[in-house]
Structure formats: C-alpha cells, structure tokens
Write a structure and sequence with these properties.
CATH class of the largest domain: Alpha Beta
Number of domains: 2
Strand order of the largest sheet: 8-7-6-9-11-10
CATH architecture of the largest domain: 3-Layer(aba) Sandwich
Strand content: 25-35%
Number of strands: 14
Shape: globular
CATH superfamily of the largest domain: HAD superfamily/HAD-like
Number of helices: 11
Distance between the termini: 24 Å
Length: 276
C-alpha cells in the first residue's frame, strides 16, 4: 500500500492558494480507488483548514514542516520536538531588537495549541492574524502569561526582509534550531519567518505517518527547500515545473506546473483514474 503526501503552496494549490475543481475531482477519484493521501505543509492547521475542508483529508497530517502531527479523528496534535527556554529567549530578544513581533506557538496539556505574543504594533501583525485565522481557531494570550514550562513548538513572525534576515542570522547561532523565510502572500513586501527545532522535518513526519498508517511506500510532491527532507525519505518524489532548481534536481521526475493542475494530471495518469 502507498501513501501520497502533498505539499500545499506551490504544489497542490494553484496561484490563488485554492484547490481547483479539477484537482478536487482528482482527490475524489483517489478516495474512490482507496488510495491513501495526506499533506505535509509549512502551514499551520488553522492556516489550511478552510482550504482542505470538503476534500476528504481524513488521515493524520503534518503541519509546520513536520513540527506537529494533527490527528483528525482524535482531534489532537502530537509533537516530539520543542524549543528550550534559552532558545526561546534568544529568538524573542532578536525579534524585539528588529522591531518584529514573535508569535509563540505552544502545545497545551489537552493537545490543543495556544499562541503567545507581545503587544501588537504593526499592520503586518494584524494581517498575519487575519490570514492565519489565529483568533478563530487558537487561544491567543499575552506574552507575559507564557508558562515557564510551556512546550514551544515554533515561532512565527512577519515584517521587512532585512529584519527577518537579521533574526535568521541569530537562529544560525543556535545549534538545534532551523529557520525558513520567504515573501509573504499578504503583500506589502513583507517576509515571513518560521523558527523550529532542527530535528523536525517533513521527512521525519512522513516516516511517522507511514508507521501510524502501516503503509509501505510514500509518493510525495513538493516545490521548495522545506520539501528536501521529504524527497530524501520518499520512495518516489515529484516536482512541479515551478519548483526550485534544487528540488527539481532531487526529484524522480519533473511534472506539470502547479497552476496548470500538474499534480492532479500526473495522478490521473499514474493511477489510471477513471471518472466513468
């Protein structure tokens, strides 16, 4: 039995960050043929929920580049990698020095997630909250209420590219942390920042998913640097035409562009999916 694992942005989703009708129909065909599929994304659950609803994503899913596994049936998270108090203090200090607001995500005892943050001060902060739907789906609390023994899963921020890069240089000095950044979809020239434990990865997550589901092989799809560990772990890995050169060089094959439903078209041919 095989497990198909999709990255979302730049891969399964089109340029409007949506699942097209053709791709939606393809997912239905996978379900009808009892072919298992899930996602491994840099997004949070609440940042993907509206996109995935109605598309039968019923299996455990990897979020924040493998930091957290969401179990839909039990409605709970699991994680094995968290930040130490020292690491947290350093990143929060670096963010504040650069005028950025750190959003600190924690895993609570009830297997739910809360977000702690200092006083919000920029348009980017409020836009990040709106786009990710933080207030709708998570408990948001002042930073000074963060428990000393909190399980911190990751830190997000958004702001000017120079400020984000300065914090990333600080992360480079932390042996057990890794940071990702890129141009924010929210516009205004903002860049996003994602910091988490270096042992958390999409590759590690899909190993966990294989074991949880008792499946033998993994076929994955991805387009950027945070998909490399997944490509190294999977039995087959495919990059859409819009993927980075590094990802393309590691892929089993390069397939159609994400904005031309390349993944869906490949799957229909690969599994001989018939709509009749």
């Amino acid at each position: 039995m095989e497990l198909i694992v999709f990255d979302l942005d730049g891969t399964l989703l089109d340029r409007n960050s949506t699942i097209s009708d053709y791709t939606s129909d393809t997912l239905k065909l996978l379900s009808q043929h009892e072919i298992a599929y899930t996602i491994a994304t840099g997004r949070t659950l609440h940042g993907a929920r509206a996109i995935l609803d109605g598309h039968s994503f019923k299996l455990p899913q990897a979020y924040k580049n493998g930091v957290m596994i969401w179990h839909p049936e039990q409605r709970r998270y699991s994680t094995s990698t968290t930040l130490t108090a020292h690491e947290l203090d350093n990143i929060v200090h670096a963010c504040k020095q650069e005028g950025l607001t750190p959003f600190i995500f924690t895993l609570d005892q009830g297997h739910t997630s809360s977000v702690y943050h200092p006083v919000l001060r920029s348009e980017a902060d409020f836009e990040l909250i709106r786009v990710l739907g933080l207030e709708k789906h998570l408990h948001m609390r002042p930073l000074d209420e963060l428990p000393a023994d909190a399980m911190v899963t990751h830190i997000n921020s958004i702001g000017a590219a120079a400020a984000i890069q300065a914090v990333m240089r600080c992360v480079d000095d932390e042996a057990h942390l890794v940071a990702y950044s890129g141009l924010a979809h929210e516009g205004q020239g903002w860049h996003w920042l994602d910091v988490h434990h270096s042992e958390a990865s999409k590759g590690g997550a899909i190993k966990t998913l294989k074991e949880l589901l008792g499946l033998e092989r993994v076929i994955c799809f991805g387009d950027s640097a945070n998909d490399l560990s997944m490509f190294e772990t999977a039995d087959e890995c495919y990059a859409p035409a819009n993927a980075t050169p590094e990802i393309k060089s590691r892929a089993t094959a390069v397939i159609g562009h994400h904005d031309e439903e390349g993944i869906a078209r490949f799957l229909r041919e690969r599994f001989e999916l018939d709509e009749s």
